């Protein structure tokens, strides 16, 4: 590591030293010098840096996931929807999804008609074969995306109670 690079690393560490509080210089046998805020063993030495008055944040010994999760308290005034209102909402949702499904199926049929089994008609602006191939690839992608949309809408409609 060059001297200027070491100096720039040290300056960067000093600049962030107020937030990190303790800086260690670690140099394992036969290894390179590393500056860090974690004491990695006997080959690390705490650096005495002027202006370091902020204490380091305490490190946890056990991960936070070791504690069992506490259930979220349910509010006492949680709003309830009566069954008739919920059935009306579900019916509205079903109608919207069925309209979207119908529109997506029409779009898919139009894309398949234009795709013509992988050989769509060439347009006048497609004198270059590469442009034609790009349009065929775009049509193929659009058909695939539309088929996935139809499947997703059918699944969503099936999930409505």
Account of the 3D structure:
- The chain has 161 residues and is mainly α.
- It folds into two domains: 3-54, no CATH class; 83-159.
- The protein contains four helices and three strands, in the order ααβββαα.
- The protein has helices spanning 3-15, 17-20, 83-115, 129-159; strands spanning 24-26, 34-36, 44-46.
- A three-stranded antiparallel beta sheet has the order 2-1-3, with helices on one face.
- The termini are far apart.
Task: Summarize the model shown.
The protein is mainly alpha-helical and 161 residues long. It is built from 4 helices and 3 strands; from the N terminus they run ααβββαα. 50% of the residues lie in helices and 6% in strands.
Count helical runs: 4
Q: Globular, elongated, flat, extended or rod-shaped: what is the shape? A: flat
For the report, how would you describe the main beta sheet? 3 strands, antiparallel
Secondary-structure element pattern, one letter each: HHEEEHH
The number of distinct structural domains comes to: 2
Low-confidence stretches: none
